[in-house]
Amino acid sequence: MNSIMHASEPLTTKEFFDLDVDEKLKVELIGGALAVSPSSAFWHNRAANRLFRILEDSMGSAFPVFTDIDVTLEETTVVRPDVFVINTADFAPNRTAMASDLVLAIEIMSPGSKVNDRRVKPALYRDAGIPSWRIECSGRRLALFEIPLRGDEVTHLGQVTLKVADIDVPLDLDAIARYALGE
């Protein structure tokens, strides 16, 4: 379960980055409050790795792909998308990624992150102008929920081709599920 610690005053991103937090913990700053998530499950990590490789192969060198590192969305919000893509023009290796850098953010839902992944983060990404996807596991299958900047989310199963920064990205969700779930 996510645990959110409220301070008497909301923390700023500067205060957040000044904290001495164990790098193994997944700590985010959401609206000035610290949110700590438990470690992800094996399938979650394997799905993120596969999505990383698919996106990296599809997007080419103009759009670097990253996993699980800080992204500053606003003065009191720093999130760690499971996988995200930025435009090379915005890449600076010695600074934290900013909302304006991202062309896609992906969250892979685990039991301890349901509320944040289904409700909180999609709203944060939309407000920041970042298209996003959410991956959920149901039994032995994966569903991808595409969350556009405007309109309702769209559910995808099986094979699908989605656009990221006007580039077609073919996904076989069943193949990713087999890989992630160890079949």
TrEMBL record:
Q: What name has this protein been given in UniProt?
A: Uma2 family endonuclease
Q: What keywords tag this UniProt record?
A: Endonuclease, Hydrolase, Nuclease
Recorded hits in CDD domains, A to Z, give:
DUF820-like (cd06260)
Keyword Nuclease, does the record have it? yes
**Which Gene Ontology MF annotations are present?**
endonuclease activity
The answer, when asked if Nucleotide-binding is one of the entry's keywords, is: no
Domain Putative restriction endonuclease intervals: 14-148
Signal peptide limits: none
Cited Pfam families: Uma2
The scientific name of the source species is: Catenulispora pinistramenti
